[in-house]
Amino acid sequence: MITTTSPRDGVVVETSISPTSPEGVERVVASAADAFTELSGWSRDRRATLLELMAEHVERHRDELVEIADRETALGQARLGGELSRSMFQLRLFATAVRDGCYLEAAIDHAGDTPLGPGPDIRRMLVPLGPVAVFGSSNFPFAFSVLGGDTASAIAAGCPVILKAHGSHPLTSELSAAALREAVAEAGAPSGTVGVVYGQAAGVGVVRHPLVTAVSLTGSLGAARVIQAAIDEREEPIPFFGELSSLNPLLVTPAGARQRGDEIVDGLSASVLGSAGQLCTKPGIAFVPRGTDGDDIVAGLVARFEAAPSATLLNTRIRTSFDEIEARLLAAGADKVAEGARADGGSFSVAPTLLEVGAEAFTGALAEECFGPLLVAVRYDDVDQALAAIDKVPGSLTATVQGVADEEGLPELFHRLEPRAGRLLFNQYPTGVRVSWAQHHGGPWPATNTQHTSVGVTAIRRWLRPVAWQNAPQAVLPVELRDGEPSIPIRIDGGLVLPVGR
Amino acid sequence: MITTTSPRDGVVVETSISPTSPEGVERVVASAADAFTELSGWSRDRRATLLELMAEHVERHRDELVEIADRETALGQARLGGELSRSMFQLRLFATAVRDGCYLEAAIDHAGDTPLGPGPDIRRMLVPLGPVAVFGSSNFPFAFSVLGGDTASAIAAGCPVILKAHGSHPLTSELSAAALREAVAEAGAPSGTVGVVYGQAAGVGVVRHPLVTAVSLTGSLGAARVIQAAIDEREEPIPFFGELSSLNPLLVTPAGARQRGDEIVDGLSASVLGSAGQLCTKPGIAFVPRGTDGDDIVAGLVARFEAAPSATLLNTRIRTSFDEIEARLLAAGADKVAEGARADGGSFSVAPTLLEVGAEAFTGALAEECFGPLLVAVRYDDVDQALAAIDKVPGSLTATVQGVADEEGLPELFHRLEPRAGRLLFNQYPTGVRVSWAQHHGGPWPATNTQHTSVGVTAIRRWLRPVAWQNAPQAVLPVELRDGEPSIPIRIDGGLVLPVGR
């Protein structure tokens, strides 16, 4: 049986959930494939309603979900309550996007003369891939797990989802799936619309299954290698969307240090220490100028870190890694300048840790992501030196500038950082990712392994492929591509047309 | 020195072009990287003008280009002239798309209250990846080679291009590059905007180069494996867009056979035999009903194939493969029912060949793509039997139904074919791909290896990645994302807004 562990006291309890057997994988995938056939006959409106029902049913289980997730992750009820609200918001946002229909990228080129002779009637839009596999994360038991953004975007696209539940929160996963299934039943959707498997072998089995058409992962580079190896064993490769590793460099400009030092100490320490530092967007490395302004910032951070309570990490692996990575960073030349409260008795707790190093000594060995409440402060002489060090940091989800609004050289600075990250922030902090139309949560390798996002409306593009119909009778075409007043934004003969009343 | 071979007489001539050395690769890539830095400061309008100048300069060299390409490919001046016109059209269409700006997928979410509390200002659009590598095809010396669609879409995106010239037409590639460089010079663009390398080792060297950010290939599965192996040797993986292999099944319905038999004989034989059958969209397998209507179609095809002149293939490899694949198809149970004129003295010529087999005997071994004028006719008893056989055909770029407009069951038939191909045609033929906004030229593996197209305006998405700016000062933002009247289609706070006057 699958066990669940409480990070606060390390107590391991057996659940009533079995690791999914190979036969179980077969059943779940077959059921998802049946669901795909049925769902592909659904209107967008019906799919949107299903997403809204999912949000409703999740809300009904709010108290249980938050309680059980807190027991399994120790993230705290406040954070988890907020995360659950975010997940419901996400489901509803995708319902809005599905009704809007712009995500279909619809286009019609009517038959007619072209500079190359007569052109045929061509109509294009995106269609769902088929059943997809989603590997939930450890650190977001809701927003990046069973009822999270990958599920919401895949269902929005019309793809049944097979969730591989994360070992850090099996009971949360089970209850989340139950809530989603209530919505599936109420909506009259096929039962295979949402499936869950438990255990790594089952996860790999799903990825290898010929009926599975894509995979997403919010996890580590190691997990990504396991998934890629499983894909490489398939006869037909499938797309793999991984959100993997990110250090999220933050640069305090000299002007920022001079004028906004106290604010930066507040914001940066909160961003690093929140959620026990276990966020993929945690700024893990901060570039702070040398000199008294920068010294004041580091002193401020030292005070915050020393005053911080010990942090309870999600599982043994993360707990062990934390120590190992800290040791490697120290061996690579960083000095420990602050440490918060040590273990408070719980087996997975660590002391918040601030390291410091000079930019001239900065090497790739100091650019290792550490999941947990650890920050490396890199002291620099001038911005060019800081940027040269940032070039040694692998691609990130985010890069942040802490400066002042009228500072000179900001456009050049952002332009210089643009190749290093997928989201560029000014005077804010990368944690607390807004779920919205314009969001992008992705970045250069190893932040992600594709040109796509896993947060925000455009995350739906991962689960879709284009199809073009040539000279097709009206009855053959999807309703969105038929003649008449457009019901969605659509490009007709080269010009973008909005539906009437928009 | 690189040699060029005339397919008509097999004569090999040494050119003055050397295979690109490792130092040469380094120079070409470094120059492309410099070009990227400079181009990233260009306005969209300036890039559009560059594309238009490219079309102009290509036109100036039309006669030479067509003549030299005909010598190197034997595709004939008429086809090559049309292909060149198509390439120029493509360059101009991407200029239009760049000016339109919708491809940037721009979105702005203003700061404000949200159901989850205050939301920051987030603005997103797509930005170019960097220098990209393009592997030209053998069979389209213009439209899918140095001056082809991958080049046009990459330059449109803002990515300098490094072309790996195909060994079948080095002189055409050299002259094409010269024409593009004239445009680059006239536009005042950096010289590294377009680079060319010769030889497979140089191609692999470009893919391995750390400054290269993406690769495209129009070619074989074998070439794709070589490129993937080179990517796997890189420290950072890069996206790889391959258009690889496609059988393009065509189904003649019983009603189609009854009412449109003669038309189908005309259209299908022309589609198979044109360009010596060397088109990735050639229908390589046709499902024809048993019975007299189907017999008449096969008899018609037999007559066309027997009357067809011998076809000159592009190179020795394709010539050798043709015989080998034909032998395998015969060994797998197909019968040869027609053969056109045999070799006309040229070393690379083959006889157009029609094979026939019963659907009940259809296996995956009969579903092998054969580049050249070969068609397998599969005779079926009922449409379900034909569909079961089509399920054994690997994913294709296209699938075609030849029927009649008011026929019953067409929607179900198309729905059934949708997972098998990227473009679905009714009563037309898949060769002669329209270059337009709604086109899709891609399909399930092994037709392509991604969810993208290499033909049509949306091909530009391959060369772009999203970036989001959070709370960024106006001066930091790309002009398209600044406050004020939108200059491009843009989604503002969830609603799509068109520029004034559109």
Uncertain segments of chain A = none
Radius of gyration of chain A: 24 Å
The CATH topology of the largest domain in chain A is Aldehyde Dehydrogenase, Chain A, domain 1
- Approximately what portion of the residues of chain A adopt beta-strand conformation? 15-25%
Tell me the number of helical segments of chain A per DSSP (H or I, 4 or more residues long). 13
Q: In CATH terms, what is the architecture of the largest domain in chain A?
A: 3-Layer(aba) Sandwich
Distance between the termini of chain A: 54 Å
User: SS-based structural class of chain A?
Assistant: alpha/beta
Main β-sheet description of chain A: 7 strands, mixed
Keywords:
homodimer, 502 residues, alpha/beta, Aldehyde Dehydrogenase, Chain A, domain 1, 2 domains, 7-stranded mixed beta sheet, 13 helices, globular
